[in-house]
Amino acid sequence: MKHLAKKRFGQNFLTDQAIIGSLIDAINPKTEEIIVEIGPGLGALTKPLLKKFKHLHVVEIDRDIVSWMQNEYAKNSITIHNVDALKFDFASLGKQLRVVGNLPYNISTPILFHLLDNVSHITDMHFMLQKEVVERMVASPSTAAYGRLSVMLQYHLAMEYLITVPPESFDPAPKVESAFVRCVPHATLPFVANDALVFANVVLKAFGQRRKTLRNTLKGLLDDDGFAALNISSQLRAENLSVADFVRISNYLI
Ligand code: SAH
């Protein structure tokens, strides 16, 4: 099919067969699993996945691609959900989902947060994203890439940076480098926030002004006594705190 890539849908189609092969190897699909692909596009991942799976769910927003897919694939091999992945109810597909996708980069952070809402239904996730985003996802405390995304995702997920992918592996080539990442929900949370909203709010406030000290960013939430009780210096910045520290602060507040 002659399909003109649509910028508004973040369409950068993977074309590098060697890279595609290593992504499929990393996903390591087993036939009996429930797999859902976000943004199948013209099938760079869908087609090799269909060689390994009897059936695949795909979530695709672009109607032109959906009508192409309806002719391209055997009906019983693929269930097409023609909706915005941000609104899709992933939990409706089952309890042990494997989620994959070369994600539209313009909405990658909201998609990650949306999937977190369904994390109890997910076995693992493999995504292609901007390299810079993957670096933020896996970052350790006290590094420049460490921020709200790192803390919120690492709370729920173990993540592994797998493969760097250059712009030339796509058509059209994106402006930036990409990377493939594996995310596996923790079987048991290493640190449990007693109130998820309080935790999210502390992380949001602390990183709201990342150059300011915690004394400033958490003003109104945590006073000197609080910092002392937690044995956390108020002179630190958000980027110096581990996920465990954020959990301790939020549990102290409730
Ligand atoms: N997986 C293909 C295509 C990647 S491009 C490949 O690797 O070549 C990103 C894909 O996500 C496109 O098919 C685009 O139409 C789709 N997409 C963009 N925004 C979306 C959204 N909100 N929900 C679902 N799919 C979306």
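^ S-adenosyl-L-homocysteine complex. Residues 9-14, 38-42, 44-45, 59-62, 65, 84-86, 102, 104, 107 surround S-adenosyl-L-homocysteine (CB under 6 Å). DSSP finds ten helices and nine strands in the chain.
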